[in-house]
Write a structure and sequence with these properties.
Blueprint: E1 3-8, H1 13-18, H2 21-29, E2 32-37, H3 40-46, H4 57-74, H5 90-102, H6 107-119, H7 128-137, H8 144-147, H9 149-166, E3 173-176, E4 182-184, H10 189-197
Length: 199
C-alpha cells in the first residue's frame, strides 16, 4: 500500500482546485494520505520561490488568467479576488493537524472545506467561529480549534522542515514515500494516478 504525503496550504488556490481528486485516486489504489499543512510563504523563502506580493506583474497576470481557466475547466466556483486573502493560514492549519490526529472525521474534506471557504465562499479561515464550523461540517469536534493549538503549532513547524527535506517547494505537493516520486500541482494528479497504478 502506497503512502502519500500531501504538503498543502489552506489558502492556496491550487489546493482548492485540486478538489477531492487526490482522495479519489488514493481510494482507487488503496493508498493512504497524510495531510501536512505548511507555511507556504516560508516554504517559498526556503526553496528559492517568490512570495506572490513580490512577483513580477507579468507572472501575477498570468496566474490570474490560469486560475480562472482552471476553475472554468473544473466547473468550480471561484473568486479571483477573495474577501479574505491573504489571511493568516496558521489557525486553520493547526485545525487540520489536530483533526487528523484526533481522527473520526474526513480530513480531506476538511482541507477542501478550508480552501473552498477562501476561494468560493468569501469566509475568513483565520476566524475561530469559521474554523469551528468547518471542523464540525466534516465530522470533527469543533473544540479542536482551541484544544489543538499547541500540538498544531509544533507539527506545523516540523511539516515545513519535512517539506524542504522531501524536495517540496510549493503546493499542492504530493510525495509518494515508498518511491520518492514527487508531483507538484493539481494539474499533475493524473501523473500521480499513473504512478500509483504502476506499483
Amino acid at each position: 500500500m502506497a503512502s502519500i504525503d500531501y504538503y498543502l496550504g489552506t489558502i492556496s488556490p491550487y489546493c482548492y482546485l485540486a478538489g477531492d481528486r487526490l482522495e479519489q485516486i488514493a481510494r482507487k489504489h488503496g493508498a493512504t494520505v497524510t495531510y501536512k499543512p505548511v507555511d507556504l510563504l516560508q516554504l517559498f523563502d526556503r526553496t528559492g520561490g517568490i512570495r506572490p506580493a513580490d512577483r513580477h506583474p507579468s507572472r501575477m497576470e498570468y496566474r490570474a488568467q490560469e486560475l480562472v481557466r482552471w476553475s472554468e475547466f473544473l466547473d468550480m466556483p471561484f473568486n479571483l479576488k477573495p474577501a479574505h486573502w491573504p489571511v493568516n493560514m496558521a489557525p486553520s492549519s493547526y485545525a487540520v493537524i489536530a483533526a487528523q490526529q484526533a481522527g473520526g472525521g474526513d480530513p480531506g474534506g476538511l482541507v477542501h472545506g478550508f480552501t473552498r471557504a477562501v476561494w468560493a465562499e468569501q469566509r475568513d479561515i483565520s476566524d475561530n467561529d469559521v474554523i469551528r464550523d468547518i471542523l464540525g461540517d466534516h465530522g470533527f469536534d469543533p473544540d479542536l480549534a482551541d484544544r489543538g493549538l499547541f500540538v498544531g503549532a509544533e507539527t506545523y513547524g516540523r511539516n515545513l522542515e519535512q517539506a524542504v527535506e522531501a524536495g517540496a517547494f510549493g503546493a499542492p505537493f504530493y510525495v509518494v514515500r515508498e518511491t520518492g516520486q514527487r508531483f507538484w500541482g493539481q494539474d499533475r494528479l493524473a501523473f500521480l494516478d499513473r504512478h500509483l497504478a504502476s506499483l
